[in-house]
């Protein structure tokens, strides 16, 4: 009788062990239950901390908007002739923003409008602050049809989960068949888009309602 009970217990333990092994092989314990099945750009990336290995997926990449309500050129001239404005819309691929900007080079009614493609890279992060670099190329719709080239550096602070405010300075080079000029400008801009981690990886929808994580120590610089 005792031998039969022992054999039965051994069989039950073997069956229980098999069930536990099957559950552990199929269960995904790497994510909280609330985030399973959530399709975001962050979830399809190979690693949220390694931006260089992120998947370049245009359809899944989140949209951002960057607007510059005020920037002023250095040098002599009326304020109306020296103030420029623009708005940019595009998609974010971890440390890279790819967008198209539309704006004007002065506040006068006959101002020259411009259309420009921009590539912005998130260079470094420290706490809520980020350093960005922008390279752009486009056209000014004046009589000459001038070529417009841009090199800009920015410092941004993430003041809300999807809102950042920054200071920017840079250079515009204008050239046509008969004229050319270079202008230095300083400005203020706003960015609406997802947060970034220390390594520049985007934080997806699961982080809504939470600010950028507080970071201590030395700043992280991408690609160095």
Structure description:
- By secondary structure, this protein is mainly beta.
- It has three helices and nine strands.
- It has helices spanning 2-26, 41-44, 79-82, and strands spanning 63-73, 83-93, 96-104, 113-126, 129-140, 147-160, 163-175, 180-192, 220-221.
- An eight-stranded antiparallel beta barrel has the order 1-2-3-4-5-6-7-8.
- The longest helix is centred in the first third of the chain and has 25 residues, at 2-26.
- The radius of gyration is 26 Å and the shape is globular.
- The chain starts with a helix and ends with a strand.
- Residues 20-31, 33-53 and 205-219 have low confidence and may be disordered.
What distinguishing features does this structure have?
224 residues; mainly beta; eight-stranded antiparallel barrel; 15% helix
Summarize the topology.
Elements (H helix, E strand, L loop, with lengths): L1 H25 L14 H4 L18 E11 L5 H4 E11 L2 E9 L8 E14 L2 E12 L6 E14 L2 E13 L4 E13 L27 E2 L3
Antiparallel strand pairs: 1-2, 1-8, 2-3, 3-4, 4-5, 4-9, 5-6, 6-7, 7-8
In brief, what are we looking at here?
The chain is mainly β and 224 residues long.
